[in-house]
Amino acid sequence: MESKQGTKPSKVLAYKKTEPYHPLYNIILFPIFSYIYLVQVNPANLYQEALIIAATWTAITIIVDLIGWVLIKHPWYMTFKEMYIDYQPWITLIYISIFVSPFIAAFLI
Predict the structure, then answer these.
(1) Nearest to 101 by CA among 22, 30, 46
(2) Can you say whether the dihedral through the CA atoms of 7, 92, 26, 38 is positive or negative?
(3) How many alpha carbons lie under 13 Å from residue 16 in its C-beta half-sphere?
(4) pLDDT-derived band at 2, boundaries 50, 70, 90
(5) Which ranges constitute the DSSP H helices of the chain?
(6) CA-CA distance, 83 to 75, in Å (whole number)?
(7) What backbone torsions phi and psi does residue 5 show, to the nearest 5 degrees?
(8) Residue 6: beta bridge partners?
(9) What's the half-sphere exposure (Cβ side, CA atoms, 13 Å) at 58?
């Protein structure tokens, strides 16, 4: 499906060239925020807390992505196939990077 201007933004070559960087900035940013959280909370069981954060953040991200990028129709929306099939391996790597981020932070603590 095309937008009123022509090609969907997610199909533009400039966007496609940024896709390999999407997991990269997630694996940089999420451990920083995980570290800040874990240092402030100072949980008794660090890796149990990391698992809770990992599962929560990953689930929230998957739900928000589904609602914001697939279900709500806007100029940048994607179909289910575009988001979860055509966007491979990047979407999977993004979710993995979000999931492992709290463990990276816990390891650094």
Answers:
(1) 30
(2) positive
(3) 7
(4) very low
(5) 13-18, 21-41, 46-65, 80-81, 90-108
(6) 14
(7) -85, -10
(8) 3
(9) 20
Could you give the CA distance from residue 76 to residue 6 in angstroms, rounded to a whole number?
A: 12
| Predicted model pTM | 0.86
CB 35 within 8 Å of CB 49: no
33-60 confidence digits (pLDDT tens): 999 999 999 999 999 999 999 999 999 9
Grouping H, G, I as helix, E, B as strand and the rest as coil, residue 48 is helix
**Angstrom distance (rounded) from CA 61 to CA 54:** 11
- The tens digit of pLDDT for each residue in 75-108 reads 889 999 999 999 999 999 999 999 999 999 999 9
Handedness of CA 80, 85, 90, 91 (dihedral sign): positive
